[in-house]
Design goal:
5-stranded parallel β-sheet, two-stranded antiparallel ribbon, alpha/beta, Rossmann fold, 2 domains
Length: 165
């Protein structure tokens, strides 16, 4: 696999389809809830936690190829590698795909994230050690406390002044 390139995307008005209804699918969905994306879950069953987010559409069924026709991002989060492989086969070259159980088959990884207003710090081990990413995230959360929200805003105001970059 080629080197990954860290990017921040706007998901406003994009369609995300997550196949699977377990705790991992929930964590992935939760990370996109505030993004402005339309999130759809395809699964015969879902964990109760999904009830926290009524904006997430649940389609109670098994995956079919047509389920991802208009999706921008597809996340395979089932506990069946054959199903995840089939989902990957159904994607087009213009769709972004992630298999939560096999990062080598994925077009992207969702990193651990620390947010302090407009300060966004992402941490990734390229899928090799989510536990280490989580540990580093907790350390950075302690270092970059809530006052960084104000610092970023102050720098933003300074940048708006004539002659500033």
């Amino acid at each position: 696999m080629s080197d990954m390139v860290p990017l921040l995307f706007s998901f406003e008005n994009k369609r995300i389809v997550i196949i699977g209804g377990g705790k991992i699918a929930f964590r992935k969905a939760k990370s996109f809830v505030k993004s402005g994306a339309t999130i759809t879950i395809i699964s015969p069953e879902i964990v109760e936690e999904f009830n926290e987010f009524p904006s997430i559409l649940w389609i109670k069924k098994h995956f079919e190829k047509e389920d991802i026709t208009n999706a921008h991002v597809i996340i395979a989060a089932t506990d069946d590698q054959k199903v995840n492989n089939y989902i990957k086969e159904c994607t087009s070259d213009f769709q972004w795909f992630s298999d939560v159980s096999d990062q080598n088959k994925s077009d992207f990884h969702t990193p651990a994230v620390v947010r302090r207003g407009d300060l966004v710090i992402s941490i990734s081990t390229s899928g090799k050690s989510p536990i280490l990413s989580k540990k580093i995230k907790h350390e950075l959360e302690n270092y970059f406390d809530d006052h960084f929200f104000k610092i970023v805003n102050d720098y933003g105001e300074q940048r708006k002044k004539p002659g500033k970059q």
